[in-house]
Amino acid sequence: MNRNVLAVTALALSAIATGALAAEDMMKKDGAKAEMEKCYGVSLAGKNDCAAGPGTTCAGTAKKDYQGNAWKHVAKGTCTTMKTPMGMGSLTPAKT
After folding, report:
1. Among 10, 43, 55, 81, which residue's CB has the most CB atoms within a 10 Å radius?
2. Strand locations in 1-92, DSSP E?
3. pTM (two decimals)
């Protein structure tokens, strides 16, 4: 792999990790989980939370990284701030 691919992959993984940390930080004091929302275009191949468009059934069925119609649950309010090599996360599915 060349350095550019490695750099882009590292950037994308750090963006996803940042979202996960933000979700953890948003835990309420009583231990209840923060509100979550579907965020499209931020999951890696096979790591989506549920259906990823035609030809897929549910969790883990995304065919490619950052597939625009595959979603992950993220902390409410963090989706559109998540940056990936394909752009920002979206609250609505994109055609892929």
Report:
1. 43
2. 36-40, 71-75, 83-84, 87-88
3. 0.61
